[in-house]
Design a protein that fits this description.
Helix content is 66%, strand content 0%. It is an all-alpha fold.
Length: 127
Amino acid sequence: MVLRLAGEVGQASLAMAASSPGARASVDQHAAEIRGTLTSCGRPVTTATLLSYAEGFTEAAIARGWWPPHRQLDETVARADASLVGISRPEASADASPSPSPQLDWESLRLAAICLLLNEAQGRGDC
């Protein structure tokens, strides 16, 4: 379930970044950091390695209280998804209203970079 969420966020974020040169540059920087980290640890940048990285990254982000901005637009779905993977999400405050077009946060950009690297590893144009 975590990898499904990671893929969803990565795809959506990569698509959103495509229309913004600044966001695309951030995704490229994240991809370079991930690639550098993996290779410095002696791990090849393969589909299996990237999926493992995505799973661990997403689990850690959720444990810190992160939730995908685009999912915050529909809190009912977000709560249902969180309960499916056994994660308790903090309730949104009553005065917090979601943005109609979510911004790309650090975690979303990181997942977009993982998606980009998966595309490269698989030789495909989509995540």
